């Protein structure tokens, strides 16, 4: 008999991570809410989410919420759309989305940031987004004379119907304006889970995602950027959620994705790269959404994932015999779920949540 999933050891590994106070924990402090999503979803897929105190988790998640409505990666950290999705997904796992002020959170996803210059007397001057970079440049060049004039520079969130969605349909991740198809997926996924997808211009969002499609059938982070499996997942899932999969050349993309399988059975993210367990999610979920999963050797992929387990202490690594972490443990177990591995709950390939959680949100069952 071949290797089997060390489910109980993986549960114990995940539960032990939260109790650690080592270097790895410190350097991941800023993305703790992402780690919580990975670990908790893994526990749910393994049927063990009851091993954690849901009240404690929900309380901590809400402490990560910024006054703007968005969430930071940890308590006291700046909000970002990346962390906001993880927060929504965690609350969805525990059927606690209702504890949120949903309009406040969705407005945060839609918000537009302005710089507000305010002097100590309380008077203020709104500065448009287009001029913020010149102000930042002045500050970075050491020419700041605002302090000597008793000015304070700070950022203020302002809800706006166009918000983080830009004119071309793309989305920025936070106040600094970085654009990436990851953020398109996150905005679409978050708002769909909150039943607020109608707050954005879906047609423009879809048009932007499609503009990031390349001649090889894949998608990049922006128009003309290299195709990458992670970005492909984001674009395919965004199109799936918006009912726009017809915009994809499924055979061409399916070919690119199935070519990611290495001789060892694992999947890589780009040509000539090493296989990595995390692509058991990025590639596999995309293949499932475009109905081309039968183009890879699923048995060899299962074996590769199982070979990456730490059979003594639990956890899954990127490649066999490497150090394990929560990130790869989640994507390994999620990949096995997509492959219908026995004993695992089914996971939705677009929302990255257990199917029963997604059904509860959209169908009330």
Description of the molecule:
This protein has 15 helices and five strands. 43% of the residues lie in helices and 7% in strands. A hairpin with a 6-residue loop joins β4 (316-317) and β5 (324-325). It is mainly alpha-helical and 365 residues long. α10 packs parallel to α12.
The major sheet is characterized as: 3 strands, antiparallel
What letter string, H or E per element, gives the SSE order? HHHHHHEEHEHHHHHHEEHH
Strand order of the largest sheet: 2-1-3
Note poorly predicted spans.
112-140, 143-162
Radius of gyration from the alpha-carbon trace, in angstroms: 22 Å
Principal-axes geometry comes out as globular
Q: Please, what is the average pLDDT?
A: 86
- What helical percentage do the residues reach? 40-55%
Span between N and C termini? Answer: 38 Å
Query: Helix segment count?
Result: 15
